[in-house]
Amino acid sequence: xxxxxxxxxxxxxxxxxxxxxxxxxxxxxxxxxxxxxxxxxxxxxxxxxxxxxxxxxxxxxxxxxxxxxxxxxxxxxxxxxxxxxxxxxxxxxxxxxxxxxxxxxxxxxxxxxxxxxxxxxxxxxxxxx
Length: 129
Ligand code: HEC
Description:
The chain is mainly alpha-helical.
């Protein structure tokens, strides 16, 4: 009788351990390239504000005709994006590696990439008239 209880207990422990291991594995799997993790996007959002990008491009990188163009959700490929931010050609101020590390710019890029797409114009009743 006691043996049966012992077996039951170890079975339960084994199942619990397996579940815990599986969950940990899921949590540790790095996001695939091109799909940034939620944590990275969240950090990028904060950096987008602290570096002042939002002042011209809007809090959602949606842009404004008066201050700076829309940046997301389909930004330039990263190489061109970073080249522009480092040495802009127009009115935008430059952000050199000294003022902003590559790691920060990558997080900002992740934030921009994951912004929701704008609604289709004809899905807005007033504009469809
Ligand atoms: C003072 C306003 C201002 C700030 C601050 C600013 N930008 Fe800009 N940005 C612009 C303007 C205006 C343009 C349009 C081209 C130009 O005049 O340089 C632009 C263009 C860009 C482009 C090129 C877009 C394209 O599709 O060609 C990128 C990328 C960009 N900005 C990213 C950023 C990031 C990232 C930050 C923050 C680190 C930032 N900008 C901060 C004003 C600003």
